[in-house]
Structure formats: structure tokens, C-alpha cells
Amino acid sequence: MLASRHVQHISVLRDFAGTLEDERVEYLLPSKAQKGILRHIAKIRRGSRAVRRDGIDAIVGVLNTPHGWIGRAISLLTHKPYIHMTIAGHREFWVDGPWVEKFNLWLFGRGAAITVTGERTRQYLLGKGIRPEMIFTMPNLPDEQFTQVPLREERHWDIVSFSRIDRNKNLLLLIRALAVLKDRYPLKVAIAGDGEELENVKAAAREAGVADRIDFLGYVAAVEEKIRVLSDSRIFVSCSRGEGFPVSLLEAMNCGCVPVVSDVGDIADVIVNGQNGYLYQDTEQEAEFVSCLDKLLSSPEQLKEMRAQAVKIKKKFSVAENGKRWDKVLQYIDRN
């Protein structure tokens, strides 16, 4: 957002200071530790005071719960325009059930603007009656360090996964695919992440006879370490049953990984199937997933050609391009 020529200052309401160092950014931190709903009420009060004190022109809420609700409450109390940012696709609206979905659409559809991560989320909102002129596409972006990564040919891991390890991320599908492929290729696999399904995934790997092929790296937070792992991997996989617009996908492509990912959320805005990666539909049975992986593992030349296409993503998604998108959003709400 700072890349927009219309933004001079951003106040960020959160529980702890962020890592972005810019003189235009101020972090509004709590004066004392609070839990549960009291913490959110305190944020609304603190944010409302800041809006009135500093002459803030617009409120931006990120994600529906709780930040979007908090931002919308502040905008209603201060009579300032509200911009709602979806960063996890249309599932943000409906994932908590039909009644919450209706409330979210009613609440955010009466704001000033909504940003979406891609075309499927835009079509979802249009189908729910949200006015087209208030919907703007704003893809998620990786850290700018990923755009400077040099392309390496030699790589240690054949397959890498970067995600939280829970039921939605569906890593058991990867284990079943590896069980099919293990006798065809001398696979080396990296799984980065942590979560409640980690031990189940490890147990499944042992049972499938592929545990010795997998390096479980745990949670990788540092940008430099992410770059090191991704730059040392050939194929990036995602088995998710539901996504929005995952930053990990862009990070991997920036590092020269060829993606093989489930066709969920707004991912199709990134992948041209068969050119810069593969999309598959079936997230419950491994046959389609295995077929996509097999095409790349069996053909080093195709993998190399698709890697060259994957890294072109750097030109399509950038801070500068999102700055231009924010210009359009802010001009729109200023006119309305």
C-alpha cells in the first residue's frame, strides 16, 4: 500500500509491533495485555481514538474475523470509509457457516470497497450481489527479497512443501503420492511447517515406507532460510482442499520451483496449466496428483523449460503493480 502515490501515513492496529520499518508506518500497540473479546474491544476503542486524533482518511480491515469486523466497527463509529481486504479468497466469507457468510456479505458489502486476491473471489462476490465497481483485484505478494533470488540449476530436493500442517492442507495426499512414486524415482522431499497433523503425517510416511525420503524441516520463519530451501528444490507442491492466494506459491516460483498445486481459491490466476506449472482437481485421491508429478520427474528438459516460465511471475506480481492498484481503490472511494 505504501507504493501508492496517495498514501502518506499508515497506522497499524495490532497486538505487537511489525517488522516493516518505514517512517510512514506507525504501530498502535495495546497499553496492557488483554485476552479474548476484551482485547478486540480495546482495539476498537484505540483505533477510533487514533482516527479522530490523527485525521485518518480511511480504514482498512484484513481478513473477516476478527480484523475485518474490528475495522468495520471503527469505520462505523468514526464515519470513515472502510476498505475490506480479502487475503484468503472467498472461503473467508463462508468458512464459518452460512449464517456467518450472510453477515459478512451484509457487513462488508456496505463498505466503500473490497479487494480480492483473484478472479474466482471476484466472481463469488458478484454472484452474491456485491456491486462490481467496488471490487478491486489485489494479489498477495511475497517479501521483496524473493524477487532478487538468482536462479540455480543444481538442487538437492526434488519436491518441497511449505505450509501449516493441518487437515485442510492435506499433506496425507502427498504421502500417498510418494508411496506410488518411490519405486520409480530416488526421491528427496522437504516438508516445511508445523501443526496439529504433523505426527499423523510422519506416521503415515513411516507406514508407506517413504519416511527415509523426507526431511521434516519444522516451521521456517526467516526469509533467508525460506529462500535457501526453495532455491534448493525443484518442484513445489500444495495439496490444500481450500486456499485463497497463497504467498508460499509465489515465493516458490520466484525461487525457480515448478508448482504442482490443487486448483483451489485464486491459484488459477497464477498458473497456466502445463506452461509454468500444473493444476489438479482431485484432492482426495492421489492418481491425478501423481500423474502431474510424474510428468516433471520423468522429463528433466520439461522441468527446466517450465522453471524458466515459473520465474516470470516476478514481472506479473510486484509491489509497484499493487501500488497502482491501490491508487485506483483510493481514487474510487474519494469520488464516492
Give your account of this protein's structure.
The protein is of the alpha/beta class and 336 residues long. It folds into 2 domains: 10-141 and 318-335, Rossmann fold, CATH 3.40.50.2000; 144-316, Glycogen Phosphorylase B (Rossmann fold, 3-Layer(aba) Sandwich), CATH 3.40.50.2000. It is 42% helix and 15% strand. The chain has 13 helices and 12 strands. The chain has helices at 36-54, 64-78, 91-94, 98-109, 119-127, 171-181, 198-208, 223-231, 247-254, 287-297, 300-310, 313-316, 319-335, and strands at residues 10-13, 25-28, 59-62, 82-85, 113-116, 135-137, 157-162, 189-192, 214-218, 233-238, 258-262, 278-280. It has a 6-stranded parallel sheet, sandwiched between helices. Strands 3-4-5-6 form a 4-stranded parallel sheet, sandwiched between helices. Helix 1 crosses helix 2 (64-78) and helix 6 (171-181) crosses helix 10. The radius of gyration is 21 Å and the shape is elongated. The model has no long low-confidence stretch (mean pLDDT 92).
